Amino acid sequence: MTQTATEPTTTGDGQRVLVVDNLVRRFGDLTAVDDVSFTVAAGETYGLLGPNGAGKTTTISMIAGLLEPDQGSVTLLGQQMGPKKAAPKRHLGLVPQDLAIYPDLSARENLNFFGKLQGLAGGELKSRVGEVLELTGLTDRAKGPTKDFSGGMKRRLNIGIGLLHKPTMLILDEPTVGVDPQSRNAILESVEALSDEGMAVIYTTHYMEEAERLCDRIGIIDSGTLQAEGTRDELIRLTGGVDNIQLTGSGDTAAAAEALLALDSVAQADAERGHLQLTVHDAPTAVAQIVTTATASGLQLSDVQISRPNLESVFLHLTGKALRD
Amino acid sequence: MRQLLTLLTTDLVQRLRDKSVIIFAVIVPLALMGAMNLVMGDTMDMDLETATVAVSAPEDDQLAAQLIGAIQALPEGGLEVEVTETSAADVQALAESGDAKLGLVIPDGFSAALMAGEPVEVEAVEGDGSGIESTVVLSVVQGFLDRAGASAVAAAAGAELGLPPAELGGLAQQVATGESAISMTTGEASNEQLDPKGALIAGQAGLFLMFTVSFGVLGLLAEREFGTLARLRSMPMNPHLITLSKVLSSFVLGVVATSILLTAGGLLFGVSFGSPLAIAALIVCAVIATTSLTFIVIKLAKTSEQATVIQTILAMVLGISGGAFFPMSGTGLFGTLLDLNPVGAMIRGLGITSGGGGLADIGAPVLILLGFAAVALVIARFVPDRGAMA
Ligand SMILES: Nc1ncnc2c1ncn2[C@@H]1O[C@H](COP(=O)(O)OP(=O)(O)O)[C@@H](O)[C@H]1O
Ligand SMILES: [Mg+2]
To answer: A4, A87 in Cβ contact below 8 A?
Structure first.
C-alpha cells in the first residue's frame, strides 16, 4: 500500500485547480445531477447555491471521489478523480454536510486519526493538529469525547479535519447548517482567510447571504442543473439589472417624478405620499444624477434608499420559485 | 499498510471504549457458563461413575489374572471398578446392552503368547454408555500389555461403530497383525469427547464468537451513521482498506475474546483443553471461519439493526446445530452438514486437544474451519452489494 505522491500539475489549464466536466448522476429514475460543468481556480471560492435537493451534495460527492459519475469527469490538478483514485485525494479536503467525527474519540484523537490517513506523521502531524485545534478554538477541549461537544464545536472540528493537510482544494458542503450565529461568523471568516491564502474552495449553501459574502463566482443549481453561473454582479444582471431607489422628502413629488423619468437611467417613477419610488438601471452610478435632478425640481430630500436585487431575486427570476421555502 | 494499521487500531480503541464488546464477548458468556453449570448441577460434576467391566479370561492363566488384578486395583487411584468375570459371549452381550461399560476378552494362551513375545490380542468392546471411565480402564490394559512386552489390544467401540460382532473379531485380527506387535485402537468418538464442563465452555465460546465477530460489521455501519464513511472514502487510500480494517478488527476481537473465554472458563471450571499451540491454531481457524461470514453480512445489511438480526440468526443456527448447548448428531446429508459446522468443528477440535492431541491431530477440524471460510468468501463475492458499502 504505497502511495505515489504525484506533484500537482496545473499545466494546460493555467491556474485551474478543478475541472468539472458534464457530470451526470442518476438514482433510479431521478437524475440528481444533470450535466454540470464548472471550473475552480487557485484562490477562488466557488459557490454552489441552491435549495435542498438541488443536487449539491451529489455533485460534491462526485468531485471528492465518493461517488462514480454516470457520465462526465472530474479532474483535480490534472489528475482524474474517482472512488478508486488515491493520488488526487491527497490534494483534497472534504468537509461533509453531515458531521463526520467519531463521538467516542476526543477532538485530538479525531484529528490524529484523519491526519495519519492523509499521510501526515511525526512532528508535522503533531504541529498541524495543534494549529487546527487553535484555529477551531478547541485547544481547551482537545481531550474530552466529542459526543459532549455543542453543535457549533462539532461543526468547527468537522471543518478543522478537512484543513489538516492544507489541501489545494477545499470542499465545504453546507458547513453552517444548524450553527449558532457566532460560530457561523467564525466559520465564514476562516473560509475567507483560507481563500486569501490561495486555497481553492467550493462552498455549497442554500443561504444567499453566505454565497454573496464568500464566493468569487457562484453557480446556481436547481433540479440537478446549473441554471446560471458567474460573479454576483453578472448573475444579478440576468434579472435585467434593475435596482430600486426610494426618495423621501417634501415638495412636488409629481413634478420631480416627471423630471426624473426624463433621465436615461430611470425606467419608472411612482409618486406616493412623501415618497418617490424609482426603478433604475445601475443605481450606484445613477444615484448622484437622480438626487441632483430631484433637488433641482424642488424636492427637499430627507432620505435616499438604494435597494438592489440579490441572489434571491436571481433565483426567483431563473426558476420561478423562492430559494428557501 | 500504515493506513490499515491506523484504521484498525482506531477501530479497536473505539470498540473497547464502547463497553458493549467486553460485555457481550466476555462477561455475558462467562456468566452464562456459570449459570448453566449451576443449573446442570451434579451431572456436570467430574465425579467419575463406577466402571463396570465384564471380563472373560482363560482359566488358570497367570498373566490374565494379573491383568484383572491390575484393573481391580484401580480404586486406589480414585476410580470405582466393578469387575464381572464371565464367558466371552456374555462379555459381548453385557457391553452391548450397556450393563457393562467395557467388555474385555482375554484370549486363551494369553500368558504363553506374551512370554513367547508373540502378538496377543485383547478384544475390547465399549458399550453405548461408555465414557472416560472405560478409557481409564483401557489405558490400564494397554499399560499392562506394554510392560508385558509384546501384545496387542484390539478394541472396538462395537455398538458405536455398528459392526456385527463377527466382524469385530476380524477387525481385532487386523489390528493385531499390524506391523507393531503392540497396537490398540479405541473408539474414535471417545477420543474427541469433551467432558460436560469442557463442552459447555467450548460451546459457549463458539456461540459467542459468532456475536463477537459481528462487531466489525457493526463498526462499518456505525461509520455510515456517524457520517465518517464519506470522509474515509475521501482519504487518499484504497477504499477496500475500510472494509478490510473492520474484518481485521472482528478477527482480533474474536481471537482475544475466545482465548479469554477458554482460559478463564478452563480455570473457573477446572477444565484443561490441552496443548496451547493446538488450541491457538483452532481458535485462529475458528475465528477465520466465523469472520468470513461477516463479509456476507456486510453485503446484506443496510443498518445496524439488520446486521444484528442476520448475525443473531446465523449465530443461533450455527451455534445450536454445532452443539453449543447440547451435542447434536445426525445421519446422511444432515449429519454431513452438522460435521461441517464451524462451531461443531471447534468443539470437536478442542475435544481432540483436551484428549492430548497436538497440532498434528487437529487436521480435520482445521480443514473444516478453513474450508468453511473459503466457501463463505466465495458466497460473499456473489452476493449483490446492497449493504454498508453500497
Ligand atoms: N443515495 C441516493 N439515493 C437516491 N436518491 C438520492 C441519493 N442521494 C441523493 N438523492 C436524491 O438526489 C437529489 C439531490 O440530492 P442532494 O445532492 O443531496 O441535494 P442537496 O445536497 O442539494 O440538498 C435529491 O432529490 C435526493 O433525494
Ligand atoms: Mg446537501
So the answer is: yes
